[in-house]
Amino acid sequence: MSDSNSTPSPRVLLVDDSPINQKLIGGLLERVSCQLTVANNGQEAMESLAVQDFDVVLMDVQMPVMDGLTATGLIREHEQGTTRHTVIIGLTAGVDRKACLEAGMDQYMSKPVRPKMLYRMLDQIFCRSSTNV
């Protein structure tokens, strides 16, 4: 995804309570030159979004403190009446697609995250090629 120096690196917020997933998915994102910010739960995600815009949020669905479905609903509430629409991709090991979409997520990906699927989704969002990865 870093094939053009004139295009800024995508800003990605990874929201996941698992340090293993943070390391794995974070490494995949850094490999394609994403600017990565990590939050451990939905509450931390809301705090990050209050001070910075992100191009995409990868949101785990099941987390302590505030789950991903609740956080997504709050993000969508905050966007009402604005032109802002944050792309949110749900990360789930067990919640069905319908629940993710009803909460306001744009897409969802089942865990464990497969690199090719992640890169394909990012390509669709950013209309760029990461096939050199």
How would you explain this protein's 3D organization?
- The protein has helices at 19-31, 42-51, 68-79, 97-103, 115-126; strands spanning 11-15, 35-39, 56-60, 87-92, 107-110.
- The protein has 133 residues and is of the alpha/beta class.
- A 5-stranded parallel beta sheet has the order 2-1-3-4-5, sandwiched between helices.
- Helix 2 (42-51) packs parallel to helix 3 (68-79).
- The radius of gyration is 14 Å and the shape is globular.
- 31% of the residues are buried.
Task: Give a quick summary of the entry.
This protein is α/β, with parallel strands linked by helices and 133 residues long.
From the structure above, extract its key features.
5-stranded parallel beta sheet, 133 residues, disordered C terminus, alpha/beta, 19% strand, single chain, 41% helix
Strand content: 15-25%
Return the structural class.
alpha/beta
> What is the strand arrangement across the widest sheet?
2-1-3-4-5
What string, H for helix and E for strand, traces the elements in order?
EHEHEHEHEH
**Average pLDDT across residues?**
89
**Main sheet record:** 5 strands, parallel
Shape: globular
Annotation field: number of helices = 5
The helical percent reads 40-55%
Please give the number of β-strands. Answer: 5
Give the end-to-end Cα distance, rounded to a whole number of Å.
8 Å
Low-confidence stretches: 129-133
Cα gyration radius (Å): 14 Å
